[in-house]
Design goal:
With 380 residues, the chain is of the alpha/beta class. It is built from eleven helices and twelve strands. It has helices at residues 55-66, 82-85, 88-103, 123-126, 137-144, 156-175, 205-215, 232-238, 288-304, 331-342, 361-376; strands spanning 14-15, 18-19, 27-29, 40-43, 46-49, 71-73, 180-183, 221-225, 244-251, 277-282, 309-314, 348-352. Mean pLDDT is 93; it is low at 1-20.
Length: 380
């Protein structure tokens, strides 16, 4: 093994055109994710149970602990980096939305305990009038929400803010010299944009990780999104920037899949970000071969962009075991995906996104990290 400088955290720094280090990818975690417990949503007018539950992260953590992975406690951060990727008014709205909801009496009349949008100021509705913020919390929610499925409970902001700290702490480890880190984020984030939330996402953890890496000295960063669904929020945040490139492999939204309106192959960036965005939509029902081919395309895109670090939006809802999977990806497929990312030989932050089969979540994360660690030469 090549000799490497080891910093105070015990991680081997990059050497030459690659990096080494015997330590496996560590896990960053915060128990505060359990504060978020919005347990229902409204889908096409029907109340449904949320699959985005606290057991998701707890089962992942249990599996990774049992496998002997180091667990690092998340560190609290101020809002400086968060405000670099989100509008300040979105952050403040999320911070106070539940209290305003209660103050207006909605939990008693009509009996809705969670913040739920019921009116949306769409462009066609408002034109040619400017947006005027409504007084009603039920209407104000529609200014910021992209759907009716993503509700806000009493502890939602605290849970989402803890997830941001998890992602930022993982990126801090990379800046300090770690070759990789896994951010056990919940709730997920890649559907949350600069000024909106939705898709079970409130604040964009992957975007925060990428911004942290940028501010930590990496000139250009890639976000590689392998969740089953397009990360519309991450794309929007960086769409006009060239310092963070975004590449996503996901089920084709034109085939009827969330987020429906974006995620198409002709979305390549604008302004300074022209050419810095790549979408690889694939047909529903595809398995490992087509999906891994798409990941190869995105990895090559990141390589050609000359990035110095990588953030992986690690969604597991493409798995064949997932209850609503639009794809049919196996455990071996996720291991191969980890290998593909490791082939870049770059510092990497994995950020947890979707994935809802509690019996396999931990196994799939472990397979991905094992594939990554084995390819980069860590002791596994």
């Amino acid at each position: 093994m090549v000799d490497a400088e080891v910093n105070a955290l015990g991680y081997a720094k990059r050497v030459g055109d690659g990096w080494v280090g015997s330590m496996r990818t560590p896990v960053v975690y915060s128990p505060d994710h359990v504060a978020h417990s919005a347990d229902t949503g409204t889908w096409v007018g029907v109340t449904i149970s949320s699959e985005e539950v606290s057991a998701r992260i707890e089962t992942i953590l249990s599996t990774l602990r049992s496998a002997g992975r180091e667990v690092v406690d998340a560190v609290a951060h101020d809002d400086e980096v968060l405000k670099a990727v989100h509008d300040a008014d979105l952050i403040e709205y999320l911070r106070g939305a539940y209290a305003a909801w209660v103050a207006w009496g909605y939990p008693d009349d009509p009996g809705q305990s969670q913040v739920t949008a019921y009116a949306f100021p769409t462009q066609r509705f408002l034109s040619p009038h400017p947006l005027r913020l409504p007084v009603s919390p039920g209407a104000l929610a529609g200014v910021y929400a992209m759907d009716t499925m993503t509700q806000i409970g009493e502890g939602t902001f605290d849970g989402a803010r803890a997830a941001v700290d998890v992602a930022q702490t993982a990126a801090d480890l990379i800046v300090a010299g770690a070759p990789s880190a896994y951010a056990a984020c919940r709730p997920p984030g890649h559907h949350a944009g600069r000024g909106f939330f939705g898709g079970s996402c409130y604040l964009n953890n992957a975007a925060v990780a990428a911004q942290t890496l940028r501010e930590g000295g990496f000139d250009r960063v890639a976000v590689i999104d392998i969740d089953a669904h397009h990360g519309n929020g991450t794309q929007q945040i960086f769409y006009e920037r060239s310092d963070v490139v975004y590449g996503s492999v996901h089920v084709d939204p034109a085939a009827g899949w969330f987020p429906h309106f974006v995620g198409h192959s002709d979305e390549t960036g604008s302004g300074d970000g022209i050419g810095a965005n790549l979408n690889v939509p694939i047909e529903p029902g595809e398995g490992d071969v087509r999906w891994l081919g798409g990941i190869d395309t995105v990895v090559d895109f990141a390589r050609s962009a000359g990035v110095g670090a990588v953030v992986v939006s690690l969604g597991l809802d493409a798995a064949i075991s997932d209850p609503e999977s639009p794809l049919q990806i196996t455990e071996a497929g996720f291991a191969r995906a980890g290998e593909r990312v490791a082939s870049l030989r770059l510092p990497t932050v994995f950020v947890q996104e979707g994935g809802y089969d509690l019996t396999t979540l931990g196994v799939l994360v472990q397979a991905t990290l094992d594939g990554f660690d084995h390819e980069r030469g860590a002791d596994i």
